[in-house]
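Standup notes
- DV: blocked on the single-chain target, sequence here:
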Amino acid sequence: MDLFERLKASDQGHLGKWSEEADGYFMFPKLEGELGPRMQFNGHEVINWSINNYLGLANHPEVRAADSKAAEDWGMAATLPSNWVVATASYNTTYPIVTAGSSTPSTSQANGNNCYAGRASTSSSDYSILQKQATSGSTSFTFSGVNNTASILDGFVIAWNVEQFTLAGRATTVDFTYRINAATYGSTGITGTTLFTAPTGTTAPAFILTSTPRSITITGLSIPASATVDFRFTIANGAGSGNNAHIGIDDFTLYATSAAVIAPSITSALTASGTCGNPFNYTITATNSPTSYNAINLPAGLSVNTSTGAITGSPTATGIFNVDITATNAAGSDTKTLVLTINPTISFAVSSDNI
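- DV (later): unblocked, structure below
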């Protein structure tokens, strides 16, 4: 019998009674709640001595604030929005986008058309996403994001630093474009300078960092929920022979904007009439895309569809009814009074004496 089978067959020690609550062969209890000195086990609060955060200081607001500020000021690696993807047609797997501690790529290692993490020196902990286009032409890499909000995005505020690590004997540029849902890349709606042209000169063998900030806004967009947006940086070299610059993108920040939501304004008629016992139809309409509707004080036999605003049915009572109709969205609601008149059914008695 192997070791694991023996563990299953045994009483599993003094923690064996908690085996159904444990994770794996070893009876470490499953603790619930935020990591700290006091957590929940099997519905009861327990003291936890088995983690480095047994004093609970890692959860202290001041510690968290200091950690966030340090990352903002000094960076942690090539700065990307959380959970975003970097893609490039040719990628240097020897020097991927990494955290501090890896070797600085040398000029010889960067002669291909590739993308990797670069820093000014081996003592630097600040990396940028570095590109090298070795021949005439261009190469690119892309940040991709998804609109995971329930709102339509109408633009972006974007900033980054263009970092040049070497001089170039041949003209080298880097530019920015974007696209929505795999459409054609373009620059429509961009305010601000995107193009960077590297200074030329003798190629320096060491990585000597010069940084140029860029800040742009993109307006006039309409990006629905779940749509994908690609932000592309393209590095290009002029024709002819000569060296080309190593150029990196760092400290990339992006904020999405959305149009302000305005409360609805009811536009449907505020008078309506119907006949008792006959089918009735009326629809509440309003501006600014209501998400729900309501109607109060309807006569018997009528009801409102709160999703569409349709009031339907066959009224069973006659009279004049003041119905409060409402249209609502995230910004608020509008209520107006619908004067609804339900007339009696008119019938005629016909006898054979009159024929």
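- Follow-up: The radius of gyration is 34 Å.
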